[in-house]
Write a structure and sequence with these properties.
Number of domains: 2
Order of helices and strands: HHHHH
Shape: elongated
Number of strands: 0
GO molecular function: DNA binding; DNA strand exchange activity
Strand content: under 5%
Protein name: Resolvase/invertase-type recombinase catalytic domain-containing protein
InterPro entries: Resolv_N
Radius of gyration: 34 Å
Structural class: mainly alpha
Distance between the termini: 79 Å
């Protein structure tokens, strides 16, 4: 404020100090009430938490068909289906005389066929695909 004089600055300082004291008082009162509430009802109205996680453990998730077991089964099913879909393409490539894993990967890349996650084929990804088809 370019036009501020000593009187204006003094008044603004007094107002700011009063507001700071009011905020401090409200904060103190709110904390005191929160402490009192916690003493009466416990931790935020809930029983005391001694341990994190599901009290029934992972067994409850497995029974409900949820959790990692169900998710990994679905991923496996999708991967098996994708391998079956690619089996004729692999057979065609192998019948053309391409037999090494690297050469098969190069051929899949030259045909612009993407992996399940949209990436390029490598010898290891071809090996994983062939292993999945054998199982």
């Amino acid at each position: 404020m370019p036009e501020a004089n000593d009187l204006t600055i003094g008044v603004l300082a007094v107002v700011a100090q009063a507001e700071a004291q009011a905020i401090s008082r409200r904060t103190r009162d709110a904390l005191q009430m929160a402490r009192k509430r916690m003493e009466e009802r416990g931790q935020r109205g809930h029983p005391e938490v001694r341990r994190l996680g599901n009290p029934n453990g992972a067994a409850a998730l497995k029974r409900a068909g949820k959790g990692n077991h169900a998710a990994s089964a679905k991923v496996r099913k999708n991967a098996d289906q994708r391998a079956k879909d690619l089996a004729p393409v692999l057979k065609n490539i192998q019948q053309a005389g391409v037999v090494t894993l690297s050469a098969i990967a190069d051929e899949l890349n030259s045909r612009e066929m993407m992996t399940a996650r949209g990436g390029r084929w490598h010898a290891s990804s071809v090996a994983n695909l062939l292993r999945r088809l054998q199982d």
